[in-house]
Design brief:
This protein is mainly α and about 325 residues long. It contains nine helices and four strands, in the order H-E-E-E-H-H-E-H-H-H-H-H-H. The radius of gyration is 19 Å and the shape is globular. It binds fe (ii) ion (2 copies). The site of one fe (ii) ion has 8 residues, from helix 4 and helix 5.
Amino acid sequence: MASRLRYCADLRQRLLTAIRATASAASRCPAGGSRTAEAASPDASGCGSSWASGRPFIVDGAPRLAGLAPRSDWLRNMAAKASPLAARIAAEWREDARMEHASIAAFARFTLDLLAFGAPAELVELAQRAALDEVEHARLCFGLAARYSGVETGPAPLPAADLRLAGSLWDAATSAFEEGCIGETLAALFAESALARARDPEVVLALQQIAEQEGRHAELAWRFVGWSLARLGPDLRYELERRLALAQQTSAAARGEPDRESPGNRAVLHAAGRLSAADKRRLTDAGLRDIVARCVAQLTPPAAVAGPALTSADDSGTRST
Ligand SMILES: [Fe+2]
Ligand SMILES: [Fe+2]
């Protein structure tokens, strides 16, 4: 038990360190700069990244979101805040809120997958806790949308009757890799980068919580993938490498696309915790390269149990077994 606890703390610390280092390095790149990628195709939220705010709820191969409804039970109450870009900022926080809300469903399904494949109790507990985290993330984001718009909204009913559980441990592991190891690692990276630039105190408080918890959700996904790898063997690792390569190809496809945000707008957005499309493309590229790829490279069954080494600075620590 003691070694497992050391492993958990070790992996968490390595992930958080890597996420913060990558967010810091990416923030030092000039906007629209060429050292890192300008990446993926626009998504439904218009953020310009194919990766969204956290674990997506995928049904029939597509992310599913609830619509919006006028209601006040899904938001944290916050005082109104004026901004020259208030409408846009509110709309973007509202889209984040819909994605956070969908993550609740994603973790509910993940919990059922864990139970179906006999996963350890600790992973089931962490998945349940993660779902509760996502409830709070949705409330925070709906609250920030109302802070900037003055309009209280929440989620409409989320259609879920047609969702399917994973048909095999292989399917569950590959989904967890894409939705958690990639999706939540990038979500933590986005939140950490936005936090470093935010000036609105309510935004700072929200992003502190979201960044820390998304990092834990990513950690959970890596642990489940490591557990699956020990059962499925190296073919799973080859499949993860293939999927990572596809993600990196997508990220690189739009490399060099200019940053169309004006410096003035960018500063206003950053103060309100919003990243530009170019910010997200740059972070996606850096996160895939500097965090996800390094984890996958060391994700053999023994290393997965020990936790991936993410940065040379972290590698001096004793790896527990
Ligand atoms: Fe979240
Ligand atoms: Fe999450």
